């Protein structure tokens, strides 16, 4: 475990040095603030405070941004070291492959968490200060931050998986762009197409909500929407989520980092540096 | 039990259809320096990676200080310098070496080690600003961490200027002096081989030679060259001992190692007619070529 921490400390230093931490945090703050102000118009008509509206818009943002930032940070984690030839050296030390992966994961997830907390936190603070906040909207904000970090964790581990499979750093970059597109855009489009074809039949009634929540990005969305009536109200998306038991989305989102880490660990094992 | 701290027995490995290691057996004792020579693609790096447990072997056995390759005990006992290694450019030399020391679990004098390899001025500079030679030195510094039982150096001279090479030999001697078994892989013929205790030569995955320099010379039976400088009449000398006159005053002849002493006695019998005598043993390069190269058409290997 000490070895994992030593690796984590080094990775964290690298993230600071190559400005990744600063850039990710600035991106988060800018997008969150922009959405908070852009979404501030319909506050009165819905009868909720501004922070609620802000959390609803930031939830939509996070579905895209959290996976993107997570993959950006993780795609190079194994392939980069392999390209440099330092992976063979690292693995000749007594650290196990699991410890290497865990060390990198701790650093990358911490960096992501810092960017999320500062980004969503500052936008939330601005919204609360200018348009009011209640207990419920503060809880919704906290939920958004925590679930965004978990969603990030999913894609950090999936990034390692890809990084272990790819033959080079460049290939890993391309593959992670594809992965992002599939999980965040294409999967939903496919489901939507199926629903349209089905015309409200049994697929839409029974299978669709489960298929949807099986995707971590959708599970994230459902968890945030189901958690707060007013967030659901402002995001106008309640139908599918209400057909599922409340535990479905949290279980899916919490399982995914484990699945991702397991897949990454297996793929990493196969590498001959 | 043998004293061999590294013992490779009949290691065989296929990559696809190609046999990259073919029944390789090699041992290294504590404090011994062994050069592993061979052309590019001969399988030197593969053999080293097999010892490290980074790549599995198909059959045969490898034993590092009584442990299997890749086991924690074996990894603790080995030090490795990869071929053309690079490190993360954002870290400093001190940070990189501190990480290795922590992974090794040993207390280490990081600044002292970096000073030992001549990097004390670049201690806190980012590795991104290092030259290739400096990165190679950083790689060497981590080999010295924690008194390894076995050190595996893959092409350690690449990227080093002649002066750094002297430092490398000194470090190899230091390792051997503290009882580390050192295996040095090289495709180029450098002075390293002459400073090792034994030379192993690989050709296409096979170990074709494993002997001391003298032993190799004897086996190869390459001729020793004698050059006799005549005091006055070179032609007369050539007539008496055979050989060939080269420039005005010298005679050159080749003889086998067994005939060397007899030949020398005949030359000294000539007395004052001989002004000087030069004996050139077969050059390392000739030896290497003899063993590492494909047998020519029609040759019996
Ligand atoms: N990762 C790999 N995948 C497939 N073949 C490889 C790989 N690494 C080495 N080889 C092949 O194995 C043989 C031995 O290579 P190597 O051990 O690197 O030789 P050397 O270090 O002596 O130059 C070569 O034919 C090389 O092409
Ligand atoms: Mg090699």
From TrEMBL, chain A:
One of the record's GO molecular function terms: ABC-type transporter activity
Signal peptide bounds: none
GO cellular component, one term: plasma membrane
Species of origin: Pelagimonas varians
Pfam families membership: ABC2_membrane_2 (PF12679)
Transmembrane segments: 20-41, 61-80, 101-129, 141-165, 177-197, 247-268
Membrane found in the keyword field: yes
Keyword vocabulary terms for this entry: Membrane, Transmembrane, Transmembrane helix
Protein name: ABC-2 family transporter protein
Lineage start: Bacteria, Pseudomonadati, Pseudomonadota, Alphaproteobacteria, Rhodobacterales
UniProtKB/TrEMBL annotation, chain B:
SUPFAM superfamilies: P-loop containing nucleoside triphosphate hydrolases
GO molecular function, a single term: ATP hydrolysis activity
The keyword ATP-binding appears for this protein: yes
InterPro entries xrefs: AAA+_ATPase, ABC_transporter-like_ATP-bd, ABC_transporter-like_CS, ABC_Transporter_VariousFunc, P-loop_NTPase
EC number(s) recorded for this UniProt protein: 3.6.3.-
Coiled coil: none
PROSITE patterns referenced in this protein's UniProt entry, alphabetically: ABC_TRANSPORTER_1 (PS00211), ABC_TRANSPORTER_2 (PS50893)
Domain ABC transporter per the UniProt entry, residue ranges: 6-229
SMART domains: AAA
One protein family per Pfam: ABC_tran
Sorted UniProt keywords: ATP-binding, Hydrolase, Nucleotide-binding, Transport
Keyword Acyltransferase annotated: no
Catalytic EC class: hydrolase
PANTHER family: ABC TRANSPORTER ATP-BINDING PROTEIN ALBC-RELATED (PTHR42939)
Official protein name in the record: Putative ABC transporter ATP-binding protein YxlF
Organism: Pelagimonas varians
Highest classification ranks of the organism: Bacteria, Pseudomonadati, Pseudomonadota, Alphaproteobacteria, Rhodobacterales
Gene: yxlF
């Amino acid at each position: 475990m000490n070895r994992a921490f030593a690796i984590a400390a080094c990775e964290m230093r690298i993230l600071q040095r190559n400005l990744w931490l600063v850039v990710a945090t600035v991106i988060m703050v800018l997008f969150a603030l922009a959405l908070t102000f852009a979404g501030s118009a319909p506050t009165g008509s819905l009868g909720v405070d501004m922070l609620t509206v802000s959390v609803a818009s930031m939830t939509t943002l996070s579905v895209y941004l959290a996976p993107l930032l997570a993959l950006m940070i993780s795609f190079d984690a194994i392939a980069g070291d392999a390209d440099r030839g330092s992976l063979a050296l690292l693995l000749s030390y007594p650290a196990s492959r699991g410890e290497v992966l865990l060390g990198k994961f701790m650093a990358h997830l911490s960096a992501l968490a810092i960017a999320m907390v500062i980004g969503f936190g500052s936008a939330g603070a601005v919204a609360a200060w200018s348009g009011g906040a209640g207990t419920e909207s503060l809880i919704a904000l906290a939920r958004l931050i925590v679930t965004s970090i978990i969603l990030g964790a999913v894609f950090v581990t999936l990034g390692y998986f890809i990084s272990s499979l790819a033959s080079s750093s460049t290939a890993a970059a391309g593959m992670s762009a594809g992965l992002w597109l599939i999980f965040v855009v294409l999967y939903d489009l496919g489901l939507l197409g199926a629903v349209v074809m089905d015309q409200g039949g049994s697929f839409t009634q029974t299978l669709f909500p489960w298929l949807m929540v099986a995707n971590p990005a959708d599970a994230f969305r459902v968890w945030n929407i189901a958690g707060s009536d007013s967030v659901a109200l402002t995001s106008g998306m309640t139908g599918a989520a209400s057909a599922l038991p409340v535990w479905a989305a949290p279980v899916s989102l919490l399982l995914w980092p484990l699945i991702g880490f397991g897949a990454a660990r297996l793929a990493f094992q196969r590498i001959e540096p | 039990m043998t004293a061999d701290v590294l013992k490779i027995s009949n290691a065989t490995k296929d990559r696809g259809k190609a046999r990259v290691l073919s029944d390789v057996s090699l041992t290294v004792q504590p404090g011994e320096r062994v050069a592993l020579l061979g052309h590019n693609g001969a399988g030197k790096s593969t053999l080293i990676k097999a010892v490290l447990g980074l790549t599995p072997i198909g059959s045969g056995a490898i034993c590092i200080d009584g442990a299997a390759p890749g086991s924690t005990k074996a990894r603790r006992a080995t030090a490795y310098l990869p071929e053309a290694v690079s490190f993360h450019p954002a870290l400093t030399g001190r940070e990189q070496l501190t990480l290795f020391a922590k992974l090794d679990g040993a207390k280490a004098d990081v600044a002292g080690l970096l000073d030992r390899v001549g990097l004390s001025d670049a201690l806190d500079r980012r590795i991104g600003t290092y030259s290739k030679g400096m990165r190679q030195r950083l790689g060497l510094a981590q080999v010295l961490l924690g008194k390894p039982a076995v050190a595996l150096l893959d092409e350690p001279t690449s990227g080093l200027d002649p002066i750094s090479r002297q430092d490398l030999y000194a470090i190899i001697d230091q390792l051997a002096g503290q009882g580390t078994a050192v295996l040095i892989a090289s495709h180029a013929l450098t002075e390293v081989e002459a400073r090792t205790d034994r030379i192993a030569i690989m050709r296409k995955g096979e170990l074709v030679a494993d002997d001391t320099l003298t032993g190799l010379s004897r086996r190869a039976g390459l001729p020793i060259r004698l050059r006799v400088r005549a005091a006055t009449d070179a032609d007369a000398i050539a007539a008496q001992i055979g050989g060939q006159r080269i420039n005005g005053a010298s005679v050159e002849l080749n003889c086998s190692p067994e005939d060397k002493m007899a030949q020398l006695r005949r030359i000294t019998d000539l007395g004052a007619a001989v002004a000087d005598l030069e004996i050139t043993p077969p050059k390392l390069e000739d030896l290497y070529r003899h063993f590492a190269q494909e047998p020519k058409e029609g040759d019996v290997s």
